[in-house]
Write a structure and sequence with these properties.
The chain has 184 residues and is α+β, with helices and mostly antiparallel strands. It contains five helices and five strands. β2 and β3 form a beta hairpin.
């Protein structure tokens, strides 16, 4: 039984190492304020009629503009956001965020294209802004991570030289987590 646990634990640890490092590094940096950057460009659009206020109409305008510039659509979701006394479209993804803002002139709009830097790209993946396949892989990663904890815990608690260390570390981990969570 122990050999099977070690085999499963080792295989999962090696397979999920890149994913684990990505989540650990981006999450740690994000929590201290380093979220990565964008390279932003703005484009003035001339409109035949004022911007619609519903999502589908705004997305249609952006889709047409992106296609005319031969730019792939963002991989995440689009939504209408309130900005001051107005509204705008925000469509996010792992490589590109797009915003479509009204202007004082109802026949013009501003299209912001925000290309992610490498670090921001990984932050966006961490925030589930990637394509569907990556989101599914992240769900598999979650199962893999829980399995890693369970197999590692079982190995530690069932091996005499590590049992006491595992128990003390486990209790300390729960106590520190609870204390920090309660004071946050």
């Amino acid at each position: 039984m122990y050999k099977k646990l070690v085999t499963v634990h080792t295989a999962l640890a090696a397979f999920f190492l890149p994913m684990g490092l990505m989540y650990a590094i981006t999450g740690g940096l994000y929590s201290i304020g380093n979220k990565g950057d964008y390279k932003t460009t703005e484009h003035k659009l001339t409109l035949a009629e004022p911007l619609p206020n519903e999502l589908s109409g705004l997305v249609a305008i952006v889709e047409k503009e992106l296609a005319s510039r031969q730019i792939a659509q963002p991989s995440g979701g689009a939504g209408v956001k309130k900005g001051g006394t107005s509204y705008y479209l925000e469509w996010t993804g792992s490589r590109l965020d797009v915003e479509l803002h009204p202007t004082a002139d109802p026949n013009q709009a501003t299209l912001k294209l925000k290309e992610t830097t490498t670090h921001r790209f990984f932050v966006q993946l961490h925030k589930a802004k990637g394509a569907t396949a990556f989101k599914w892989f992240a769900a598999v990663w979650m199962v893999g991570l829980v399995t890693l904890f369970l197999t590692g815990g079982l190995m530690a608690f069932t091996t005499r030289p590590y049992r006491k260390l595992a128990m003390v570390s486990g209790v300390l981990g729960v106590a520190v987590f609870a204390a920090l969570a309660m004071t946050s």
